[in-house]
Prior knowledge:
By secondary structure, this protein is of the alpha/beta class. The protein is built from 21 helices and 10 strands. Strands 1-2-3-5-4-6-7-8-9-10 form a 10-stranded mixed beta sheet, with helices on both faces.
Amino acid sequence: MPRMTRTLRRRPVDSGRAIAAQASAQSSMTGGAPRRRRTGISALAVLVGGCLSACGTGLSAAAGGSATVPGPIPSGLEFFYRQAVNWYPCAATDGVEKASEKTVQASASTTAATASAQATAAPSSDGATGTAGSSEEETDTATFSCAVITVPLDYANPKGETISIAVKKRAATGGHAQGALFINPGGPGDSGVSFAERASNAFSPDLLEAYDIIGFDPRGVGSSTAITCSSDDDASGGTAEPSAEASAGTASGGESFEEWAESTRQSFQELTEQCAANTEPAALLDHVDTVSAARDLDILRALAGQEKLNYLGFSYGTYLASVYAETFPGNTGRMVLDGAIDPSLSLAEQGLGQAKGFEQALRTYVDYCQNSTGCPLSSGTDAGVQQIRDLITSANSTPLATGDSNRTVTGADIVTALSEYLYTTEQNWEPLNKALDQAINHRDGSAFVASEEQDTSSKDDGGGAFQAVTCLDYPVEGDKTTWAAQYEQAQREAPIFGNTAVGMDLVCSVWGHNGTRKPTQIHARGAAPILVVGTTGDPATPYAWSKSLAEQLDSGQLLTWEGNGHTAYGGDASCVNDAVDAYLISGTMPKKGLTCHGNE
């Protein structure tokens, strides 16, 4: 669960706004990861024409179910592993919508022109090539194609109802891919299709040259058969989300467990009813567990013509990969799991660990702030944290004004904003200094509103998928007495973020579609080497979780990054990026015990 509990980015647990910020923070897990840098496009172009069905390493177009499938086929699933796959051109954006012929021709023309310009460009000072006037905001000119795959709704009844899985492929820019690399940004609930569209912003040029990047929306998500929590005639066009106030409570104190539990229950009861009323088929709500998603992923692997699954996943995406490796160890290829979830932990243990992770990350931020200009905090770490707590308490009592007379900022809003900032590295923390200065010294919350609007516009809408997946993956444990004790413990050990990280068992008891599979260690005996990447300052998936998963996996190996924010690969740490690329591209694992420091 790497978005801070919906109850529980959106990105950090992948995966919830804390309980709504936690829902917001977790994602994904981004997910995906919030600090991805944009990289250049490789020189060699791959034109669209003639490459839409069984081209390269993309999902194969089996005819009449007679194709040769790499690897064993589970009994009773022959139809799904041998289905015909019809690829069609799609744009670099717009999900899996079919691109018009004009768009395809324009994309091919742009790609060819880019390749020609790059081929003739003079080497830069570091030996790389590039086009004059290129910028980080250029549109991705790689070739994209999409497909929709059929899988069983219920693997216990493969002859019954079926659902669809949406897939998007970004063709290798090197022209001759060495295989397919499946990706997942986290959540649960974040879109892998959308992540594939952002691949040039997330992965290195070398990786993009080597692999066809394949993103998919897991069952229940996005363009696949999805959990739907709003009707077509909903005037707002959106999903009912629990409010930050209901989810995060009063953050720094004052709300009793009974008050918090009742407001949380009411908020999620409404969401539960809307999702149940609008999801089709209704039975989907009982079949979006991660074990089923892992079985879907093996069908995608086979249809991609891959004997082994090569995979790069973040946050919740590491849990999906761990379950896959446990279920299909013989089909596991090169896997990198960044910002890992410890599968042996209960929901309550995860929630408390995450709350404490954000609390520690806030202390790191306060130290950063007090060593930079324009910081409104003073007198050391403890005093600076207390000043933030005082601001939250004050804003809950008297919300801050903003430039919009109809919009105010509460303490719960500030907790949500803090969690979002802490998902990122310190390179992105300066705006938080300004927002806090405005709030503390001028009682103005305008900067927090601007930050929230920007953050919201950059997120996928996971709807009720986060709750649906989480509540099927973990059993409801305890009762009102147990949850009250957990709430009080979280308040003591994480006074700012405690409310946002506990209560998922309560939420799942309201949700009503529950699993029985208890948390346990995952060993994946017989799997190929699996590289686990852990960030020492990761608030959403604490470093201890990555360390634990690497120790559990029989073939696991830990790569440590001494840095801040949620996940490591794709950021400014070249040591991490090079190590991950070396394993995925050439199969070379980093030396055991490798620790990368800062931006080195």
